[in-house]
Design a protein that fits this description.
The complex is a heterodimer of chains A (274) and B (255). Chain A has 274 residues and is of the alpha/beta class. Chain A contains 8 helices and 10 strands. The longest helix of chain A is centred in the C-terminal third of the chain and has 18 residues, at 188-205. The radius of gyration of chain A is 19 Å and the shape is globular. Chain B has 255 residues and is mainly alpha-helical. The two termini of chain B are 16 Å apart. Classes of the chains: A alpha/beta (274), B mainly alpha (255).
Chain lengths: 274, 255
């Protein structure tokens, strides 16, 4: 059984063995929103390993989205630090090309067609637009949007729009992909399809993914590691390690999958009432 | 084909008017029939078209000025709450004061009657454009702004890719209102200020024909003003359609 709750010594030994290098470290993060009585997030400690698929699971309102927005600088923590120990200037998260964020909704600009929407980040960060076309078509191919370049967002289905959104996030060739319940508006089949694709892209592009969700099955299926959060105030409740499990299509119907899902589910239940 | 219906309705009203004129034996100098108005347009064609050109020039120049100034002001207001709070009341005062009350003052201050009329037209046309554009800029979705923040977009990129396109539908619906208002402003201005130097516009043709008891010509001028208004309005509608057809829900094609 490769699933277990990580203890501090586990984590330490794992790091010392050099199995994983820390890409980002969130330490003592607190967030109190203006006008709020209590902290939304309290003393959060999260480590993101390189090439990790990390999921943050928790009930609604426990501050998962806030955490993600802090990682990409959209909101500032009230206290605590977010550090990126291994990055130098070129690949620091301050360089926006290295960090992409996929919103809960596709968040496409309705006045631009698919091609222009995907191209937008390149135009903003002014990465050499010389090879832009090539990059864009490679990404369009990767997410299976060939033939839809000229479509406008309102002509696309929910799943298609999400693909465009993912393509837009990938076009700057980021090292880290932050995803905020990206598939919550899609039906089960589409969700699975797109999850598969995310796994494929992650492997192909050597991405580190931080994934926020409230779906236990999705997180168990996709993740190397899972942080379970508790609400009021938002805190890390437990941490699980699933790395080393071979994840093929059959895995989601395998008994181990359900066993693991049950463990996470139990943890989540306890977290709700902690 | 709702457009065809409206044309039929208007045409039948004209025919009814013509028939009533003849059957009720009405006086032509009180209410000339459509046929007489058309005849008047024909016989005064050159002078009326000249006047129309003058009025149209004032209208379009005023419209262009209000588009440029209102969009620039709206952008400044969008980025500076302070400027907005201090300047907005002035624009409101200009809007709520009847143009007919300010026009005589303007004609005293400004030598050229063409310029004075233009200012009148500008003052009426300007406000809907400004308020609509500001509303459009401010209605930009939080998520879209976040997206720009994520990529560290500068102010110019923010405007160009997100905020201005977002305001476009609002701006265009302001333009629909302002086009009509600019024409009204140009007419009202000329009524109060007097004939535009060189060649008088349509408003002065109305006054003139009134004095000379050329009632059909008076109606002909009014008729031309209405037609111009309708054409201008439809031109803006066509423009909106061409710009927004691809992405805006107000133009989504029927299934």
């Amino acid at each position: 059984m490769s699933l277990r709750v990580l203890t501090d010594t586990d984590r330490q030994s794992k790091l010392e063995k050099g199995q994983s290098r820390i890409l980002a470290q969130l330490d003592g993060i607190c967030k109190k929103f203006a006008g709020a009585q209590h902290n939304a997030l309290e003393d959060i400690k999260i480590e993101v390993f390189q090439k990790d698929f990390l999921s943050i699971v928790g009930p609604s309102g426990c501050g998962k989205t806030s955490l993600l927005k802090m990682m990409c600088g959209l909101i500032k923590p009230t206290a605590g630090t977010i550090s990126w120990p291994t990055s130098n200037f070129q690949n620091s998260p301050e360089n926006p090309a290295n960090l992409s964020y996929v919103f809960q909704e596709p968040n496409l600009l309705p006045w631009m067609n698919v091609y222009e929407n995907i191209k937008l980040p390149l135009k903003i960060v002014k990465e050499d637009t010389y090879s832009a076309d090539e990059k864009i078509y490679e990404i369009i191919h990767l997410v299976g949007l060939q033939g839809f370049e000229g479509y406008y967002p309102r002509q696309l289905s929910g799943g298609m729009s999400m693909r465009v959104s993912i393509a837009r996030a990938l076009v700057t060739q980021p090292k880290v992909l932050l995803m905020d319940e990206p598939f919550s508006a899609l039906d089960e089949t589409r969700r699975f399809e797109l999850s598969q694709e995310i796994l494929k892209i992650k492997k192909e592009k050597n991405l580190t993914v931080v994934y926020v969700t409230h779906s236990i099955y999705e997180s168990v299926y996709l993740s190397d590691r899972i942080y379970v959060m508790q609400p009021n105030p938002g805190k890390v409740f437990e941490e699980f390690d699933f790395s080393g499990i071979e994840k093929n299509e059959d895995y989601r119907f395998a008994p181990e999958f359900f066993e693991q899902a049950k463990i996470v589910s139990d943890s989540l239940q306890r977290a709700q009432h902690a | 084909m709702p457009k065809a219906y409206s044309v039929i309705v208007i045409l039948s009203l004209f025919i009814l008017w013509e028939i009533l004129f003849h059957t009720l034996n009405m006086r032509w100098y009180l209410l000339p029939p459509p046929s007489m108005i058309l005849e008047s347009i024909q016989s005064n064609f050159i002078s009326l078209m000249g006047s129309l050109a003058v009025t149209l020039k004032v209208t379009l120049t005023a419209l262009l000025a209000s588009v440029i100034i209102s969009v620039c002001l709206a952008i400044i207001f969008y980025f500076s709450k302070f400027v907005e709070r201090s300047m907005m009341p002035i624009t409101v005062i200009l809007q709520v004061t009847p143009i007919i009350a300010i026009a005589p003052l303007i004609s005293i201050w400004v030598d050229s009657s063409q310029m004075a009329t233009l200012i009148c037209a500008f003052l009426v046309a300007f406000f809907p454009l400004l308020t609509n554009t500001i509303a459009g800029l401010k209605s930009t979705e939080k998520n879209h702004l976040d997206l720009m923040k994520l990529y560290r977009a500068n102010k110019y990129q923010l405007l160009r890719y997100v905020v201005l396109p977002n305001a476009l539908p609002y701006f265009l619906s302001g333009l629909k209102i302002s086009t009509g208002l600019a024409l009204i402003g140009a007419i009202v201005g000329e009524f109060v200020i007097g004939p535009i130097s060189g060649h008088s516009g349509l408003a002065y043709r109305i006054i003139e024909s009134g004095y000379q008891l050329e009632i059909p010509k008076m109606f002909a001028s009014v008729f031309l003003i209405s037609i111009t208004g309708i054409l201008l309005y439809n031109a803006v509608r066509l423009l909106s359609f061409m710009i927004l057809k691809n992405w805006h829900s107000s133009f989504s094609e029927a299934e």
